[in-house]
Specification:
The chain is α/β, with parallel strands linked by helices. The protein has 6 helices and 5 strands. The protein has a single domain, classed as Response regulator (Rossmann fold, 3-Layer(aba) Sandwich). Helix content is 58%, strand content 15%. Helix 1 links the parallel strand 1 and strand 2.
Length: 160
């Protein structure tokens, strides 16, 4: 399945999320605070990050900002998990680059659904990017063929 980084300062919540996601077949790594998460991200890519907002020292907003500043990790999907139910906070999360939001407390099925949706959207994005790149390659290939034709038949160019 997917490689997922879970970042939460509450060991009970962190362990619960890890247990649910590993039970769903994912490879889960955990971090207890923001800097630990950033260090792990520097060493290894993850397909998804589940990030708590309310953490001491470096809160989730700051972690999210740092992730988006890392060129090699900026596009990693992030799901924000928080006990604070605040529309302003949700807007801040979205503006910061989170792709989804999960309010604590949550049911295991809710977490699994949000994670599945995020991974599916991420894969669709990768597939779309591949289609775009393939189309661009075909266009450039056609342009290259056209240039080759013009170069090999300079007299045809004069007739036009």
């Amino acid at each position: 399945m997917a490689t997922i980084l879970v970042v939460d300062d509450d060991p009970d919540i962190r362990d619960l999320i890890q247990e649910i996601l590993e039970g769903a077949g994912h490879d889960v790594t955990v971090a207890a605070e923001g800097q630990e998460a950033l260090n792990k991200l520097k060493r290894r890519p993850y397909e998804l990050i589940v990030l708590d907002i309310m953490m001491p020292t470096m809160n989730g907003y700051e972690v999210l900002e740092q992730i988006r500043a890392m060129p090699s990790r900026a596009s990693t999907p992030v799901i924000v998990v928080t006990a604070k139910h605040d529309p302003t906070g949700v807007m801040r999360e979205v503006k910061g680059g989170a792709i989804d939001h999960l309010a604590k407390p949550f049911l295991p099925e809710e977490l699994e659904e949000v994670v599945a949706r995020a991974l599916e959207a991420s894969q669709e994005s990768v597939d779309e990017r591949r289609r775009v790149l393939q189309t661009e390659a075909e266009i450039y290939g056609s342009m290259g063929d056209l240039v080759d034709d013009v170069r090999s038949n300079p007299d045809d160019k004069k007739k036009r």
